[in-house]
Structures are given as C-alpha cells and as structure tokens.
Amino acid sequence: MMNQMQRILAARRLSPSIIPPSCFLHRRWFSTSETDASSRHQKIETLEDKASSNKSRITPSTTSSLNEQELAKFSAIADTWWHSEGPFKPLHLMNPTRLAFIRSTLCRHFSKDPSSARPFEGLRLIDVGCGGGLLSEPLARMGATVTGIDAVDKNIKIARLHADMDPMTSTIEYQCTTAEKLVEEGRTFDAVLALEVIEHVANPAEFCKSLSALTIPNGATILSTINRSMRSYASAIVAAEYILQWLPKGTHEWSSFLTPEELTMILQRTSVDVKEMAGFVYNPITGRWLLSDDTSVNFIAYGTRKNDIGGDI
Ligand SMILES: C[S@@+](CC[C@H](N)C(=O)[O-])C[C@H]1O[C@@H](n2cnc3c(N)ncnc32)[C@H](O)[C@@H]1O
Ligand SMILES: [Mg+2]
C-alpha cells in the first residue's frame, strides 16, 4: 500500500502539459532592464537555441547571481543561524520535512536504501546558499560527502565553527563562493541542492544554469522556494514578517518569488527535467511542517539532469 509520502509524490509527478506559454513568463527570469516583450522573446529564443545546440555542455554563466541587498540581510543576522527560536526558526522547523523529501527522492534516484542510517554514503552533494549549514550537517550525517557554499563570508565562518563541533560534520567542505565560480572551476556533483535561495539571487535563470552545470549528467537537482501567489503574500510576508514576526521585516520580496510552473520551465531550459514537486504546509497547532500536494506557498522540486547525449535516466 502507498504511504502518504508516496501518494503525494505520485500526485505531483509533472507532465509537460503544465508548462505555461511564454506570455506568463515572469519578468524576473530575465535581466531587470529588459522588460519589453520583444527583447524578452529574443532572450527566450537565445536560451532555447543554446539549450538545443549544446545539450551536453552548459556554457558557464557570465552573469553574477549576487544581489548585494539580499546578501546584506543575511550578513546582518549571521550570528543567529543556530538559534532555534531566532530569525531562522522557520528553517529549523522545516528541516525534518524537507529532509524527508530529499531522502526519498535521492534514494530513489541513486538506488540507495532509504531505511539505512547513512543512505547517502558515496554521494557527492553540494548545498548552494548553505547559510549556517542547517541542511549541510544532516546531509553529512546521512553519509554524503558535502560541499556547502554561500556568498556571505560570515555565514561560512559560522557554518564551519558549528560543523567542527562534531566529527560527523567536520568533514564538510565549506567555501565562501558562488555556483557560477565553481562552474568556472569545473566542479561537478552527484546532486545539487539550493533550498530557499533562488528567491534571493540576482538572476534566477542564470542561477539555475549554474546549478545544472554543477550537476553531473543523470545527476539530481533539488530546489525549494516560495510560490508567487496571493496566499504566499498573506502567509510568507504579512503573517511571517509582520504579524508573527518570525522573520525580519523585508526578508522577502513577493515579486521575486517564482511559481512552480515558472521554476519548472526555467529548469527545463537548463536541461533539468522536474520529476516531482511537493508543498510544505505549516500546522499552527502542532507547530510542524508537513509535505503536501498544496504548493501554493512553500514548495520543493526535484529534477534530473539530462545526460550528455540528450537522454534521461
Ligand atoms: C534563506 S537562506 C537559506 C539557507 C539554507 N539553504 C537553508 O535552507 O537552510 C539563503 C542563503 O542563500 C545565500 N545566498 C543568497 N544569494 C546567494 C548567491 N547568489 N550565491 C550563494 N549564496 C547565496 C544567503 O547568504 C543565505 O545564506
Ligand atoms: Mg527565503
């Protein structure tokens, strides 16, 4: 019998029919100066041409993913990464739920035993935008060889200090750098994860291009973010920042959010096929996050990187 997780994942398996027409594209997929329809259209075609003419090798991104204003927000609260009641409380609470999705999808993808204590043994994972290492640490405990990168040096210092307190996590390679720089260095990983990062980068399409280039052919890519919906405005911004004050005011820009369809399309253009998606739903009574098929606010996506000859695993 299917358990709840399997049912959700099966329900969210994506078909190409959900890909929206280009008229629904969000302006932030493209550089902010290019807002007129014709230049947008040209940019889509250029991306498509590149994708089809060079499926096997994604050219490194020439655009920086850094948004200095966003980075300053994280730098200002870097000391609080491991305060479970501080500004990162929602991420602490979300961790078991997102790890359940990651364990389930990566174990299936790499034919690993999900009931093993160290199912990720032998896998090289990168946690892009790792912050203080909330995700990198459990991934290392699950046996993965983990690289954690973040554009904020203070975050990396905190992450390293914290990881060094436990021999299981002291093996994590932390670096203050960006995905695009690692692409230039020719680094690749079995799986690339970027959780709650894309809504803070300067150019989501270029950022995804770098994530794809960091993923080995037939590897896995996992991203989580916040949907651009009326519900997310009410809960992720009004409630979380102004009413409950879980997050500092101004943490999120609603217009920077991507819908699941937009994220799917961006990833598809960078040779990553989104296979599964799930929503995270907060239960205010239990104080827990649950995996759900409701992707209207928080959601997570798992995709596979096409292989060099254009096929899929
Ligand atoms: C909301 S936090 C998420 C942290 C971590 N991924 C997690 O979920 O626990 C976003 C992180 O992304 C980092 N970041 C933002 N833009 C980045 C970029 N272009 N390259 C690398 N890191 C970035 C920030 O410094 C911050 O630590
Ligand atoms: Mg965020």
UniProtKB/TrEMBL annotation:
Chain's gene name: LOC108851513
Chain sites annotated for binding Mg(2+): 196, 199-200
Sections of the chain in a coiled coil: none
UniProt name for this protein: Ubiquinone biosynthesis O-methyltransferase, mitochondrial
Quaternary state and interactors: Component of a multi-subunit COQ enzyme complex.
EC number of this enzyme: 2.1.1.64, 2.1.1.-, 2.1.1.114
Keywords: Magnesium, Membrane, Metal-binding, Methyltransferase, Mitochondrion, Mitochondrion inner membrane, S-adenosyl-L-methionine, Transferase, Ubiquinone, Ubiquinone biosynthesis
Native organism: Raphanus sativus (Radish)
Membrane topology note: Peripheral membrane protein
GO CC terms: extrinsic component of mitochondrial inner membrane
Region (Disordered): 40-64
Cofactor section: Mg(2+)
Pfam family, one: Methyltransf_23
Domain of life according to the entry: Eukaryota
Role, per record: O-methyltransferase required for two non-consecutive steps during ubiquinone biosynthesis. Catalyzes the 2 O-methylation of 3,4-dihydroxy-5-(all-trans-polyprenyl)benzoic acid into 4-hydroxy-3-methoxy-5-(all-trans-polyprenyl)benzoic acid. Also catalyzes the last step of ubiquinone biosynthesis by mediating methylation of 3-demethylubiquinone into ubiquinone. Also able to mediate the methylation of 3-demethylubiquinol into ubiquinol.
GO molecular function, one term: metal ion binding
Record bears the keyword Methyltransferase: yes
Example GO biological process: methylation
Ranges of Basic and acidic residues composition bias in the record: 40-52
Transmembrane regions listed in the UniProt entry: none
Keyword Ion transport in annotation: no
